[in-house]
């Protein structure tokens, strides 16, 4: 049995993705900052028959991601699928002319150093398995920069560039990297960007391995 490792476990998309991959037979490693949140998610998944376990880590502390991912692989089995989708902080989204170089430190750690660290932690295990999937979830500013959200626009674009390089470089090793762009808010009432539908898209990206960039719905004009 292999593990689906989710960085950014929460009650919306995180729970839906954990349930989708878990019901497909993967063990689930839930990674987030809050132990209480993780306990609640584990209990919810257990009711669905999903074997899951929580590991505390912070995307702004890349070293903690390494510790969590290694512990997850030791406890649950090798990580075959990694999803990087932590929720961004509001203070990452200052207007571009109000954004200083120092203001970019946290967004870049969150969206670049975090993913690079996480991928490097799971890649040896994927190579041993002979397969793997790396899933990245970003907002629309990753492909259409928004001047009122400078930090995320810059950092998401960098994350997308990194993920695209992984897609091209790792394909010969049967390791698939893909990005899902969610242009608007993830909301239960949304036709295309509700947690359940997005989880299905992510699972299809893992199984079908069709291309790099996918959109939950069309970008608004």
TrEMBL record:
InterPro entries referenced in this protein's UniProt entry, alphabetically: NAD(P)-bd_dom_sf, SDR_fam
Highest taxon in the source lineage: Bacteria
A Pfam family this chain is assigned to: adh_short
PANTHER family in alphabetical order: OXIDOREDUCTASE, SHORT CHAIN DEHYDROGENASE/REDUCTASE FAMILY (AFU_ORTHOLOGUE AFUA_5G14000) (PTHR43431), OXIDOREDUCTASE, SHORT CHAIN DEHYDROGENASE_REDUCTASE FAMILY (AFU_ORTHOLOGUE AFUA_5G14000) (PTHR43431:SF7)
Designated name of the protein: SDR family NAD(P)-dependent oxidoreductase
Organism from which the protein derives: Streptomyces ossamyceticus
